[in-house]
Amino acid sequence: MRGELVFRGEDNRGDIDATDLRRRAFELGVDVGENGHIESVGWVNLELRSIMAKAEQIGILEEVQKKYMEGKKSGVARRSKYVMGQGGGKADSSLRIAPRMLDKKPARRTSGGSSGFVERISPEEGLKSTINVIKFTADKPEVKKDLNGLFAGIFDLQERLLDIQEDPDQRKTFNKCLEFLTEVGWIENSDLTHFDQHRAVVKLLSTTAIARAFGHSDDPVCQPICNLFETVGRKTFRKSVIVTELECVAQGRSACKFEISPR
Hints:
The protein is of the alpha+beta class.
């Protein structure tokens, strides 16, 4: 009996490993297709080789390769949605990539994949940016004070968001977070126009205090709100998400338009 139980456990583990490899291959394909990564270099190459080697070991190489290509095709389609409009390939300003996405280096998955965390930039890059900003503000007391306030304010809000009690209904958890951000004054209102808990995709309209106070801008200005919404997405879906501001009140729009999707 004991031997039979062990044998079944090993079978189940094999099923789990196969499912995980298919999922990892598909997600990597989406990442490569959407961000235009080069498959033959860097972390992408290491991750791809690792996935395929394990797939070959358990005899599902062809299936996993197919999942990777499906993901890559999906990523390319998603990227096209951002940079192209729907009318004969003309650019559509409502779907264009925000400046933060164009400047952003590819996100990198950490080794602890079960946590769902994906790095925006490496710790080294983050440290370099921090040092440069601190040097810039060294002889500007008012700017330095505001910068310290920015860091403290964002981190305090993120902690309070993460402390909000979760609801079994993910949409209710998301709404609780939005209500909190409204209470503390960072956003004035919110309207969920699309909520797909299975794909972790959300579209919402909001009026933010930052956009109201900024005045006119050619580009969206609510980057700190995007960061807070990423924390809300992480809290709700338990995975890393990316938030893009597609339209902004500062651009003369009636509301700020945000889109949340898996990173």
